[in-house]
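Dear H.,

Thanks for agreeing to be a second pair of eyes. The structure we're designing against is below in token form, covering all 148 positions.
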């Protein structure tokens, strides 16, 4: 009976690996005159999934990744069908660099700066549409909690 049950559950397990993670808790960030509602990915399992398999992203929404430590960062777009832009952010909340990301590209986009504390993904073009450039300070960022 047990092997049959496992066989019946296998499709559900495989399908779950191809589903987006449920929405994460959100915060409101202020970037100059603009507000953005960001889901906060501050746990390793949340960061691994990120925006994978998401089909839509609201205009003033995104995902904030709180890095486990200040260091260079790299992001890829595996299983991510949405075109995105990413900002790499310093511990002081200043955008250091912005990159456009291509859907499904698995080559990592590495930060040029070594001191990345956060990364913010939004729909592609959001930063340029709002005239947000490197040097912009972001208000409302959570304080990173120490991790083991």
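And this is the sequence the design step returned. I haven't edited it by hand at all.
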């Amino acid at each position: 009976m047990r092997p049959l049950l496992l066989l019946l559950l296998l499709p559900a397990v495989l399908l779950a690996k191809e589903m987006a993670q449920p929405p994460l808790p959100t915060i409101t960030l202020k970037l100059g005159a603009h507000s953005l509602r960001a889901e906060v990915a501050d746990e390793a399992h949340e960061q691994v999934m990120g925006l994978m398999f998401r089909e839509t992203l609201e205009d003033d929404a995104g995902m904030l990744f709180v890095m486990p430590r200040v260091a260079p960062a790299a992001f890829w777009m595996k299983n991510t069908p949405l075109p995105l832009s990413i900002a790499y952010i310093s511990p002081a909340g200043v955008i250091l660099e912005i990159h456009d990301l291509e859907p499904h590209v698995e080559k990592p986009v590495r930060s040029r700066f070594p001191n990345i504390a956060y990364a913010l993904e939004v729909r592609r073009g959001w930063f340029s549409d709002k005239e947000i450039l490197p040097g912009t300070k972001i208000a409302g960022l959570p304080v990173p909690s120490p991790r083991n």
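Two observations from my side: DSSP finds three helices and nine strands in the chain. Residues 56 and 82 are 7 Å apart (CA to CA).

Warmly,
E.
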